[in-house]
Amino acid sequence: MHVVVIGTGFVGVVTAAVFASFGNQVTGLDIDPQKITKLSQGEVPFHEPQLTEMLQAQLGQGNLHFTTEYAEAIPAAEVIMVAVGTPSAPDGNADLTYVHKACESLAPYLQPGAIVCIKSTVPPGSFTEISKKMKALTDTPFVLASLPEFLREGSAVNDTLHPDRLVIGCTDPTAIETLKQLHEPFQAPLVVVRPESAQMGKYSANAYLAQRITFINQIADLCEENGADVEEVTHVIGYDKRIGNHYWYPGLGYGGSCFPKDVKELAAYSRSVGQGYNLFNKIDELNENRIFIKMKEYEQLVGGWEGKRVAVLGLSFKPHTDDLRVAPSTKVIPHLLHEGAQVLAYDPLAIPAFQQWLGQPEGLEYASSVAAACTEADVILLLIEWPELIEYPYGDLPDRTNGQPRWMIDTRNQLDPQQFTSEMWQYKSTGRTYDRER
Ligand code: UGA
User: Fold this and answer.
1) 293-325, pLDDT tens digit by residue?
2) Is the pLDDT of residue 436 over 50?
3) Paired sense of beta strands 166-169 and 190-193, if any
4) Cα dist. 367→305, 317, 343, 418 in Å?
């Protein structure tokens, strides 16, 4: 099938490469010529495991091409997927400028019966608006559908190849058959619903997962007050099949390019339809404030940040990416610097991105390894569960020269507390009992 994917962010490139790997003729389209040149040469402009190999293989086999020209790509396309960015506008609503621009640019070149699928996350209600705008620009009959995306950064290729389900938001029977055929190689459950439900489903899935994280963070905080251990609590609740035992890591709150934005957008959408009193506002507020509340708590534990050498481990918002969007480091490090700490930051991948974002303010140094960050540190703050960071043998670090114990703050409960039983360590986790029992 001839498929065009518009937008070459991580959803667009992964989608293009995966559909090409199933033998489709895929064109990736973006208005940024630099991105297109790189991609045409087999270079992925961001970090995503397995993607470069897949991209190069598909370019080599001739299934995948890239262009900046709508006039070149759209006329042959049977299915067009719009996967451009939808950043948050200042009022919390999704900014659909790029989606509208892409739809307006493609409309004049459509072949009769082409299916235009919105993969970008757009709020419920925007479907009718997009359709109206496109119909004003072409007399060619086309079908507008919604194909929301559920992949995660850092495991995007694997998630796309092995989805839990595929959602087709469409009401046109012929287009539904074509889209079913296109998605057959995935061998995943296909859920066919109306476009509005597909879009609402996407927001609901992300908002539900975000509230789940917010919920377990609150439970973890309560555990710290009463001798319960959040890891045991998740075992207790996880055996209930209605609840499940996964996706329960507590920490400093959810980050990334999706959950924070989608929860805010759902809150804004609720307000816009007169439902200002809603759950989503509260989830967002709790998540926004969490880091500062926890940093105050840690400050008291370690006896103030002023003059302390603090190793901050993990700068990206999650492992296997250099994406800094709503990463805990982007709040934690400026806060520590403001409070007068000396920060030694380390990440296996994201140091260049962080340097570009924050530069080299006074008090901040970038370390070349876990050991370089931690050896002289008074406090180690483990923010992200990169394998290199959680597998490091911290217990083997030399003692501090002043004879005082060093703090390990394991914000995501990733380390074995037994490493920190010596008198030269103090260990703090989230919602666990070890620190209290020593
Ligand atoms: C998320 C969803 O998981 C995907 O299904 C969705 O397609 C994607 O958003 C999107 O809308 O594009 P992603 O943001 O890449 O994917 O990453 P997640 O692995 O879901 O993590 C999001 C945040 O939640 C991270 O800050 C992570 O540390 C945090 N998290 C996750 C927890 O604090 N605890 C957990 O148990 C799980």
Assistant:
1) 999 999 999 999 999 999 999 999 999 999 999
2) no
3) parallel
4) 19, 18, 10, 26
Name residue, tokens 């329960």.
248
User: What is the token pair recorded at 320?
Assistant: 């296997």
Q: Clarify whether 258 is annotated catalytic.
A: yes
Dihedral-angle region of residue 202 (phi above 0 means left; psi in -120 to 50 means alpha; beta otherwise): alpha
CB 376 within 8 A of CB 346: no
Give tens-digit pLDDT for 136-161: 999 999 999 999 999 999 999 999 99
- Using DSSP's 3-state secondary structure scheme, residue 343 falls into strand
Output the CA 152–ligand 1 centroid distance in Å: 6
pLDDT score recorded for residue 35: 97
Strands (DSSP E) along 200-325, which ranges?
309-313
Question: What is d(CA 317, CA 147) in angstroms, rounded to the nearest whole number?
Answer: 26
Query: What pLDDT was estimated at residue 92?
Result: 83
Pocket of ligand 1 contains residue 258 by CB under 6 Å? yes
Atom of ligand 1 nearest to the CA of 205: 5
Among 206, 331, 332, residue to substitute to test ligand 1 (most atoms within 8 Å of Cβ) = 206
Whether pLDDT at 438 is above 70: no
Taking CA atoms, 272 is separated from 124, 146, 269, 277, 282, in Å, by: 11, 22, 5, 11, 16
pLDDT above 90: percentage of residues in the chain: 94
Among 103, 117, 170, 258, the one annotated catalytic: 258
Q: Are 291 and 332 in contact (CB under 8 A)?
A: yes
Q: What is the pTM of this model?
A: 0.95
